[in-house]
From TrEMBL, chain B:
One of its GO terms (cellular component) is cytoplasm. The keyword Oxidoreductase applies. It is an enzyme of class 1 (oxidoreductase). This is Dihydroorotate dehydrogenase. Binds 1 FMN per subunit.
Amino acid sequence: MLTTRRVDAYHALTLVAPGIAEHLRPGHFVAVAVGGPRSSMLTRRSFSVHDVKPDYGGTVELVFTVRGPGTSWLADRRARDTLDVVGPLGRPFPLPRDPVNCVLVGGDYGSATLFGLADALQRRGCRVDFVIGAESAERVFGALRARRMGETTTLTTEDGSLGMRGRVTDVLPGVIADVRADVVYACGPMETLRGVTAVAIEFDIPVQVSVEEAMACGFGVCMTCVLPVIGEDGITRMVRACVEGPVFRGERVRFEDVGTIPFDAAGAPGAPSASTSPASPGGGGGPRNVS
Amino acid sequence: MSVDMRTYLAHVELANPITTAAGCASSGRELSQFFDLNRIGALVTRSITMAPRAGRPTPRMAETPSGLLNAVGLQGPGIDAFLDRELPWLAHRGVRTVVSIGGGTVNEYGALARRLTDAPGVTAVEVNLACPNIEDRGRVFARDGAAAAEVVSSVRALMRYDVPVIAKLSPDVADIVAVARACVDGGADALSMINTPVGMSIDTETLRPALAAVTGGLSGPAVRPLAVRCVWQVYAALPGVPIVGVGGVLTGRDAFELILAGACVVGVGTALFHDPYVCLRILRELEELLSARGFQRLADAVGLAHHHPPGGGTRHRPDVLPDPGAPGFGAAPGGSDLEESSL
């Protein structure tokens, strides 16, 4: 580990990890063990990567917020500490073949993963515009960098402390129309991704979203990070965010059903063709209403 | 000096005692990115069901001190897709594969066994009797010796004679020895223990249960003493039956502990989520430990803690004494030790 710094409400860690830096593509994530070698915390914490640099053979920078004992431990790490990191993991952002207009939408520290993507897009001749938002100014990540990289950057905060008052989804239709966007990329909280996807569907343009789900392993064995996604064949499956994702085509993710097993999902209790009643007497096994 | 790490699961020889635990290695492909699956004793699959299963809603996982609660709900592709895609992939690479099966009725277990009978590449079948996730109109086979034995005997009757049937036991029972004995009487060639005990955690922020399914299986080092106790008791009562010890193994020392309690094979589960390379590390550490203690063969250490050290007196009274009439298992020192322990 090289440096650690505070960025507004977030922590940023730079790690010397040549093997990861070499193979990392925008949208990939890494899974970090927390608590040291004799830790009582067994699950890895997964983070998207903000930055990759060639210094010291290759460094990667992670951005995160302290949410519990694991991330709190991580925030206390100092230069020269070693970390146990597995990566790069997941399916990265697919890139367009042609130079097209791309709008990159970030909610909270979800914007961290967008700068590597913006770089890759610009190298292909794409136009990049940013829409970045959060609840308040100190939770908006990377506004300066977005201003430097993007043709335009629109900032939103719910309390109006920076940029426009509101959410990214309030300003997104205007941005898409103004820049004649061909594709939208988004990373952030599930609710933001749901809204962004709805806007993109309205404009009938493709949208790629990077989801954040609780994971224990990050490489596909624990089966805890599943969400309902519609496959090529039209069938909904509970797929793992870590290996089938974290990047999905937005319109294929059933955002309103996240946290449930939709009755028509492959292998859902009660058979797909059966009645819609969520009958499941086995104690909490039925679809959970999250609305 | 290298240690002979070979072990036997019933009559099937494994190159070493380290296997994955059921449900912790997904299809096997995920782990094969990290290491050659042929380097572990065997790969135990997730529990395969007849129909594809979507599993439980999320959140499915909650971290607890030195443990993990999970309620995945046996998400899996179903037996058809398993036989079409997953098993041939493993068989093609020559990976020793123990297929775990889970069902809601005795007939379903039987039907699964029938489908596996002619499938190439099945080293053994593990009968998941205890998964707390399985929705079976409130009935969990592992809680009742008779119900467990019925499942085991139906699977045993249908599987090829040369494929061992392993019964996976739950610690959530009043008398694990009684269930173990019933399973062996029902035809189980080996026993695996422990499955996850049922636990629960409440999120004090949201004021709700942490898991969508409310309760879940507890795994990780938090349950290791439970696993050691179960292996100890069953080995003492049924010394001729091979035991797969599973429960919170993170290191070679932990594996050694289960082996000393009576396990001849050790399953690694939750540790895989923490470290995809963990099986190889545990194997190396175990071999170093055995070597450092002067063992030439792993088999010599199986159940060794049951035998009092020579001249060591009887400081601890074993709560269940081995049956002197039972056939000795493995290469555990025989006659004289039994005399010594019969107080």
